[in-house]
Amino acid sequence: MTRNGHGRTRAVLAPLCAVLAAVTAVVAAGCSTAADGPQADGPRAAAPGKQRDLTYAEQITVERGEEILVGTCMRKHGFRYWTGLIASVADRQGHGYVLTDVAWAKRYGYGRELRERAERARLAHRNTAYARKLTERDLVRYNEALDGTLDKGVVKVELPTGGTVWTPRDGCRATAMKELYGDLPTWFRAKKTAQSLTALYAPDIVADPRFTRAVHAWAACMREAGHPYATPREIREKRPLITKGMNRDSARATEVRLAVAEATCATGTPLARTARTLERRLRSEKLRPYRDDIATFRRMSLTALARARDLQAGPATP
Q1: What is this structure's pTM?
Q2: Is-contact 57 224, C-beta < 8 A?
Q3: Could you tell me if 181 and 16 are in contact, meaning their C-beta atoms sit under 8 angstroms apart?
Q4: Residues 6 or more apart in contact with residue 161 via CB below 8 angstroms
Q5: Alpha helix (H) ranges present in 77-135?
Q6: What is the count of structural domains for the chain?
């Protein structure tokens, strides 16, 4: 069972993660539904009335709204609850096939410090400390209030890529999603469907001769910069060995140099541009059967954004 911060899901899947790690589109980190992936901010964020994906900043607003509603619900159950950890804009970047943001690479390298900071924050969070102090009986009640139980049923979704995911219909996380999105089953189905679609076209990007030529051009650029790697994936596989035995400062400096070179070569060669072009074409061809799910996902996301903005600003109080 996995927890994703927005309810609980169980998946019975093909080895999809390993595939996506190798073939997900260059700028669409993870399973974004946007043609170019979410942006920290930008023109699309200011286009009223249009169906679009949320920017990273808007995703944060919605997640904060969810946490406020979860806190209100938990207090009704007699528990204390503080706004949970919400990933920053920087935390959400740098997870695609190849780095393309030179400024981000200069500051964060491959995100080592971001991951370490997130883990420290998780361990030190007040919700974690509070749950540890509960009796065994109260901890069971706390978890059931937060994540729900199976007694009241679950929402199931069959994914286009194969496998099934589900989430309980009750619990404070489910309650928060109902209040923000309006309809839990519709939202969960649209979200899980839309966010799984990358696997339907990403392998075709990698198999395209134009993409292969672009990767070769990127590799040539990297060799000229003193980094002889054939693909971005090779860097990710070998990165632990690259910094093995180095002290913290040396490891960080090495990763930053490599990350900057990777991003510079991605934008200085056809790689990023080719991936975007292929992704747009393949999405248009292969995702036609899922246009309604994508439209529903975007519409309900924008509805949730408006509702989240109406909630009281700031973290939920205990």
Answers
A1: 0.81
A2: no
A3: no
A4: 13, 14, 16, 196, 197, 199, 200
A5: 102-108, 112-124, 126-133
A6: 1
Helices 184-194 and 172-181 cross at an angle (nearest 10°) of 90
Please tell me the distance from the alpha carbon of residue 227 to that of residue 146, in angstroms, as a whole number: 48
User: Largest alpha-carbon pair distance within the chain?
Assistant: 62
CA distance 92 to 114: 10
Helices 56-76 and 136-147: crossing angle, nearest 10°? Answer: 130
Strand order in the sheet with 8-11: 2-3, 8-11, 164-168, 154-158
Residue 152: the pLDDT is: 87
**What pLDDT does 154 receive?**
95
In a domain, 207, yes or no: yes
Give a yes or no: residue 317 inside a domain: no
Tell me whether residue 184 is in a domain.
yes
Tokens of 11: 């998946």
Enclosing domain of residue 99: 2-310
For the residues of 189-240, what is the DSSP string, one character each? Answer: HHHHHHTTTHHHHHHHHHHSHHHHHHHHHHHHHHHHTT---SSHHHHHHHHH
pLDDT band with cut points at 50, 70 and 90 for residue 49 = low
- Asked whether the beta carbons of 84 and 244 are under 8 A apart, the reply is no
Whether residue 81 is contained in a domain is answered as yes
